[in-house]
Each structure stands twice: as C-alpha cells, then as structure tokens.
Amino acid sequence: MVRTPLTPSERERGRFLGVLLRQARGERSMADVAAGAGISAETLRKIETGRAPTPAFFTIAALATTLGLRLDDIAARCAAVTVPEEVPRDEAA
C-alpha cells in the first residue's frame, strides 16, 4: 500500500499538535508522559517534533487523557491551523 504524501497543511497541523502536546507536558518528563499513555518515549518525541504528523487516534486519545486535555479542544485547535498559500515562482518575481 502506497501512502499519499501529506499536504503542507497536514504537516503544519502535525507540527502544531506536537507543540500543543509539548506545552501541555510542561515540566513532566517525556518518559513519564509516554509511559502514562502507553507509548514509547521515542513515539512521543516524534509527535512533539512533528516527525510523526499524523499519529493514530488512540495514541492522541491516550496522550490527551495523560495530559488532562480534551480531544474536542485538540481537534478544534489543530483544525484552525492554516498554511499560507505558496506564490508560484514565476509570480513571485
């Protein structure tokens, strides 16, 4: 199965999700939060840095529970993220 490449908007939403989760984690260690969510610290690291921009729903649900976040708030905030349209090179000059 070939995966369709992510759009710039999807990548930006993933980056924003990572920032949101990192802020919610605060001073807690990555290992503690990951263990609480039942995922590896490396998976959490990838999500927080945007290298895993489309994590599984149940991963986000587990992280939300561990971090005391509401899924509807996460979804609404991530859905509001937009990427300015790129200007084609020939029009930028």
From TrEMBL:
It comes from the Bacteria. PROSITE patterns: HTH_CROC1. SMART domains: HTH_XRE. Pfam families: HTH_31. Residues 21-74 form the HTH cro/C1-type domain. One of its GO terms (molecular function) is DNA binding. This is XRE family transcriptional regulator. It comes from Streptomyces botrytidirepellens.
